[in-house]
Amino acid sequence: MKTSIVLYLVTLFASCLAFGQNQDSQQQAGPIRKVIPVQHVSPAEIRDALSGWGGIRSSHELGVVVITAADEQQARDLESAITQLDTPARSDRAANVELTIHYLGASESGPTSDIQGPLASVVSELKKNFAYKSYRLLETAILNTRQGHRTSLEGIIPGEAETAAYLSYGIDVSLRGVNRRATPSVIELDKLRTFVRLPIPKDESGGFVFHNMVLDTAIDVPEGKMVVVGKAGARGPASSIFVVLQARVVG
């Protein structure tokens, strides 16, 4: 009888101990988060490729992806998949793209300057949709960028007279990739930020104050086509400035 009681108590103690360990395990279980550096391809590409696998975010500036997994097995699966995607062989196929950005100044009056080529068709369309009568090309900027990299450019647009203040501009782009399966190919920009710093006459003494026009967006651009990215009101040399973008794959 005593032996039965002892066996019963031992069994009961073991059951309670196992239950307590199971409760502790459940309390400790939770999302697993890891930061994984990416060396060869765009973090955004990996994020999109594995979007259905679990929680995953990316940072182009830091060159990392951040995963959130339900358990250790899912975390290992994600890390393994990221390692397979982040290879030098894939980096060799990264696209190089040439971007051409036109700054068009628009005003309510005055003649339209002699604008040639495909940009003339853009101006014709703008005239149909906006009340501006005069358009002129303020500047054209060209820069080359590479998939997974960030590229910047700054420049100066001279004033119309020797005494006039100049306009300055800047461009900051991040190329996510090129969709070559589309026809035509589509250039995917994670970031396109441009600004124009406009001088506004302050008084008759010749002083100026400055007005900043800023455009910050992400956009997909069909290769070879001109796209009006945005428009912002301005003062000084133009009432508004249109930003027109054209992109082509160069390698």
Compact overview of the structure:
With 251 residues, the protein is an alpha+beta fold. Helix content is 26%, strand content 44%.
How would you sum up this structure, described in words?
This protein is an alpha+beta fold and about 250 residues long. It folds into two domains: about 25-90, Ribosomal Protein S8, Chain: A, domain 1, CATH 3.30.1370.120; about 95-250, no CATH class. The chain is about 25% helix and about 45% strand. It has helices at about 1-30, 45-50, 70-85, 90, 120-130; strands at about 30-35, 55-60, 65-70, 95-105, 135-145, 150-155, 165-180, 185-200, 210-220, 225-235, 240-250. The strands form three sheets. It has a four-stranded antiparallel β-sheet with strand order 5-4-11-10, with no helix packed on it. Strands 6-7-8-9 form a four-stranded antiparallel β-sheet, with no helix packed on it. Strands 1-3-2 form a three-stranded antiparallel β-sheet, with helices on one face. A hairpin with a 6-residue loop joins strand 8 (about 185-200) and strand 9 (about 210-220). The longest helix has 27 residues, at about 1-30. The chain is elongated. The chain starts with a helix and ends with a strand. Mean pLDDT is about 80; it is low at about 5-10 and about 25-30.
